[in-house]
Amino acid sequence: MHELAITQELVSLAQSQALTHGARHISSITIEVGTLSGVIADSMAFCYDSCTKGTILEGSTLKIVPIAALGWCPDCEQQREMNSASLACIECGGFFIKPEQGTELRLVELETD
Ligand SMILES: [Zn+2]
């Protein structure tokens, strides 16, 4: 499962960052997930508990901030929201829209206690 590997990677990243700052336990992490990133947030939330077991993230909360897909549409000559399933402009349905936002997957915040 794709999300399992990504979640494990995020957990080890959060863990090494916290240890660098001398934290002994993480109470929550916040991640941004773009709707074009191909990652299913629900699947990540589902495997989070098992990925954090035995780590300094055990018992912590995973906060997922969805990032809307936006792109530059040459037909509308504007930045438009993209349909994340068809990758077309949500206004005119054009397929020449160039993605500018929504592919990200990043750790944005760590809360320690
Ligand atoms: Zn358009």
Summarize the structure.
The protein is 27% helix and 32% strand. With 113 residues, it is an alpha+beta fold. The protein has a domain of 79 residues: hypothetical protein PF0899 fold (2-Layer Sandwich), CATH 3.30.2320.
What are the SSEs and their pairings?
Blueprint: H1 2-20, E1 26-34, H2 41-52, E2 61-67, E3 70-73, E4 78-81, E5 98-101, E6 105-112
Parallel strand pairs: 1-2
Antiparallel strand pairs: 1-6, 3-4, 3-5
Describe this protein's structure.
The chain is α+β, with helices and mostly antiparallel strands and 113 residues long. The chain has a domain at 2-68 and 101-112: 2-Layer Sandwich (hypothetical protein PF0899 fold). It has 2 helices and 6 strands. The chain has helices at 2-20, 41-52, and strands at residues 26-34, 61-67, 70-73, 78-81, 98-101, 105-112. A 3-stranded mixed beta sheet has the order 2-1-6, with helices on one face. It has a 3-stranded antiparallel beta sheet with strand order 4-3-5, with no helix packed on it. Helix 2 (41-52) links the parallel strand 1 (26-34) and strand 2 (61-67). Helix 1 packs across helix 2. The chain is elongated. The two termini are 31 Å apart. Zinc ion binds at residues 73, 75-76, 80, 89, 91-92, 94. Zinc ion binds next to loops.
